Amino acid sequence: MNMYRLTLVAAMTLGLVCFAHSDLKGEGDVAIERGALMQGCRISIGTDREAFHISQPVCVRLLLENRGEHPVRVLVASPLEAYQLDVRTPTGNAAALTPSGARNAESISTHLQVVAPGESISDSIPDLSRLFEMTLPGEYTITVRCNVLVADDGHTWTEIKSNTVKVRIHGDDVFEKGPIIPSHPENDGLPAKDDDSNIQLDEHGRIIAF
Predict the structure, then answer these.
(1) pTM for this structure?
(2) Whether residue 56 is found in the same domain as residue 158
(3) Residues 210, 201: contact at Cβ < 8 Å?
(4) pLDDT tens digits for the chain (210 residues)?
(5) Percentage helix, strand, coil, to 5, in the chain?
(6) Domain residues for 196?
């Protein structure tokens, strides 16, 4: 399967680079819930971890797959132009745009990219918290919608919806006690430590050094 990186022009202007997560690449990988197939396409999203400190970047990784029989076209633009991002705060309200997000809403340039049958494109939003207000501690939900052009007439657009990801934002009162360890069966039953600074996790949240 050929993989192409869909350039985020606005993200590049911020000097942020974030590559597609391996969890989103393999067709047989079940590490994340994938989006539903619509018109032969689906978009799936994931994050590096389940919990973030309020000062840490929230990187969202995306994978758009064309599992149909015909080519489709997608818009290449800034994140807020290419996608419809639904970020919900712990209170259930839509998260407001930050000043950076408001600037990011205006695309610098746009064009269409062809995704052939059986191909996919990976993309990333290097820091969602630069675009949306995510300063309230608690659990946030993230869903992404993307429009794909499914016909050559230039008029038949279809909206596809991703899976929903939940992330928790913590303040200093939690992180002063030590890092958040993602839930994973292989992490259960480990003894408590006075100093958790040497804990290392792999990309799936499994502890590899303790």
Answers:
(1) 0.68
(2) yes
(3) no
(4) 333 333 333 333 333 333 333 445 433 333 456 887 888 899 999 998 899 999 899 999 999 999 999 899 998 888 888 899 999 999 999 999 999 898 877 766 678 899 999 999 999 999 999 999 999 999 999 999 999 998 776 678 899 999 999 999 998 765 444 444 555 555 555 554 444 455 555 555 555 554
(5) 15, 35, 50
(6) 179-210
